[in-house]
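---------- Forwarded message ----------

FYI, see the Glycosyltransferase record below. Original note from H. follows.
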Amino acid sequence: MAVLYYDLSEQFLASGLKFKYYGISRTVMEVGYELALSDADVRFVIFSPAHERFFEVTPRIGADSPTGILDPGLPPEATPIRMRYSFPKPNKIRDLLYPIALWGARMINLWRWRSVPADMVREVDLHDQRLVSLGRPKIMADYLTVLGRAGVRIKLNPLLHDMIPIYEYAHSSASKFSNNFTHDNHIVIRESERLLSNSLFTKDEIERFSASGHLPPVPDVVAVPLCHELRPTDEPVVQVGPAEPYVLCVGILTGRKNLECVMEALLHLHETGRPVPPLVLAGAQRKRTDSYLEQGRFDPIRDRINIVTNPNQAELRRLYEGAMALAIPSRMEGWGLPLGEALWLGTPGLASTEAAALKEVGGDLAQYFDPDDPAALADLIDAMQSDGAGYDALKTRIAAGKGKLRTWKDVADDILAATEMV
């Protein structure tokens, strides 16, 4: 039977950090768990920047894992410092000094590696082996660069989550990140056997940017849509939402994530004399969000704003279950896990019409609004508050449609099929 190697480097680099439950790291964890339970010959690996090589690890799963799902099984003390191995453009001073910094980081990483018992890992040669990675392109670009210099060629099958930073070239504050992002994706695409994408929308974007020359020619691109499932865990629940029904936003920021639309919608409700439900903002605390919310114009609704910082998965589940609705007003998403998770738990979702991927997630179970029209979102919220029978009918329809929603097992099975493992 063919062997498939699954990359846990994303989790390894995030070990012990508060963001391990979110976004890409969450996807790596959930799919890894399902692959560990599958009948396929899947082996788990991490790239060690200390050694510039891959090691096979035995992940902890379920109750044995601190996450309640899956982790690489390595002590958090071994978490390495990450340093880039390549840059989009030359820089004389950086290129002169950077090798010294890289050497220093490797020495620190080797010292940290001493916390790893010898029987926990074994070095593995991935030359000509098939590797699936769901991590960030910059992590893949690092190990592809250093292994390429050593003549190691991997049959890489990466899942790309979005092409959003390519749109941000026009913004000077984001240009450095956009350049690095594009550079990393060039490396990943050139070295890939095939590409996986987290939605049909992302697949179309990859192929469009390749055709326009922003990305290199691409191999086959297979869409593997992410899922709706939110797995229950046994973590302690300390942070909870208000007792009365509330509007929930998860991971929302100003800008592309469009917190502005939600705040303007609540302000519109207040100004038109309609009830303003509590708003729960769940996710990482950001200075730019705090600064935005401090505006005096929001004083009339300030007592309706609730912040839940970095909820664990059990707390997040409780927040979904207690919400009147989830609002996701993003102008662009690669997939949109919060919308899927809300629907999975029977909570209505209010989603932007501008982010095409959200239509893939929500289908005919979500309700949609123009993200540039806060009054439209306000009307949807008000209808849920004022029309009890209509709200109950919506909840019933969502519950009846749960059977067509995707699970993490569906994602893992599709990856195995796409990579010719089944």
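H. also flagged this: The domain at 4-227+409-418 is CATH 3.40.50 (Rossmann fold).
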